[in-house]
DNA sequence: AATAAAATTTAACATAAGATAAATAATCAG
DNA sequence: CTGATTATTTATCTTATGTTAAATTTTATT
């Protein structure tokens, strides 16, 4: 739990009581490389914290698989478009490496919001921050060339190339594998 | 205030006390067509509710003006990447028509969060919903053609063409005016 | 280690969208 | 109402990325 608590502290430090309450709704999950943590069609009812490993969210656009995002150690991952709407998700979460996660039940978490305003505040801040990241991602996709986006990704996550197959990176960047290979070939 | 209260009710109905507390931190603002409501370089300290009119958020990418989003009546608009980080915004909010707005001071609002958890919950839900919209927008930009995005916009906001100049729509769609004109010409 | 499977690169050609410039249409200010 | 400004369209040419297919390299399995 230490990693998770440090993560929380970056947003909104919690009282001991609140930490204990969260600890009670957490479960450890281990997942083998390439396995889905959550599958397409199910409603998102769990928020995961990554202790070890790499995750991606992916979905299909007309039988082509698209990677929406990656998440590495000490980050939270959830399919928010399902978590916040209660609708089934068209997306899946897959672990790209053998991974260790902490699973937080969203129903129980939302219950805790009623007894611990500080927990509601914590997650408000976590998701506000994720929201800002997504707003910035729109800008990145819309107005930077594929090459610029590739370089920006390398700068942001220098180890992504070591840990994530290029085919996933290509669709994350919004281009084909062939295009990515071309961009990489230039230098 | 009635429109604003109805808007709130869609997310999290408030007690009378909470409504009164919010009412106290609201101001009416009228803005003429084409005027900036908030300008580039200032930190976002106000959340606006649009009673009448159309707003857009825009910014510059290498001296080319880009429209990030539009907002119509009965919606909230704010430059969240500044609101949630406290950093100065590279973006401006402009009113495309003569408009009436309600301005909510973000500092005072965040203070109210401490006395009214229900207000914090309300805005948590409002921004969670906006976050989901942004996640969906990433998908739309990344994996639909410009023509698909144009048609989707028309379906979503059928009156956008009557109320918003095409040059703004073009950059919102991530294409040039010339490209948009070409797409429109096809049919 | 050998083979099979998967991932990545390379090549050739096609296409959507960009850039620039000019023409036309719509809007605005006096 | 008229000229001036701004917005939109049309035309031409260029370019980045897509598509398909084949070649090569890497990884996984027996």
TrEMBL record, chains A, B:
Q: Which SUPFAM superfamilies match?
A: cAMP-binding domain-like
Entry protein name = Cyclic nucleotide-binding protein
Q: Which organism is it from?
A: Emticicia aquatilis
Q: Which InterPro entries does this chain map to?
A: cNMP-bd_dom (IPR000595), cNMP-bd_dom_sf (IPR018490), RmlC-like_jellyroll (IPR014710)
Superkingdom, taxonomy of origin: Bacteria
Question: Where does the record place the Cyclic nucleotide-binding domain?
Answer: 29-114
Database matches in Gene3D superfamilies: Jelly Rolls
Name the Pfam families on file: cNMP_binding
């Amino acid at each position: 739990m230490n990693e998770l608590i440090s993560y929380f502290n970056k947003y909104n430090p919690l009282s001991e009581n609140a930490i204990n309450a969260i600890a009670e709704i957490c479960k450890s999950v281990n997942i083998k490389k390439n396995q889905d943590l959550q599958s397409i069609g199910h409603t998102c009812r769990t928020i995961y914290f990554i202790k070890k490993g790499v995750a991606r969210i992916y979905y299909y656009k007309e039988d082509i698989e698209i990677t929406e995002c990656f998440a590495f150690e000490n980050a939270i991952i959830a399919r928010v478009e399902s978590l916040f709407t209660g609708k089934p998700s068209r997306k899946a979460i897959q672990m790209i490496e053998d991974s260790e996660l902490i699973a937080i039940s969203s129903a129980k978490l939302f219950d805790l919001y009623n007894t611990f305003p500080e927990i509601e505040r914590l997650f408000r801040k976590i998701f506000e921050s994720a929201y800002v990241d997504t707003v910035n991602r729109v800008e990145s996709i819309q107005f930077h060339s594929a090459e610029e986006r590739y370089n920006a990704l390398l700068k942001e996550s220098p180890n992504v190339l070591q840990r994530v197959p290029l085919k996933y990176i290509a669709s994350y960047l919004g281009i084909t594998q062939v295009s990515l290979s071309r961009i990489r070939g230039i230098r």
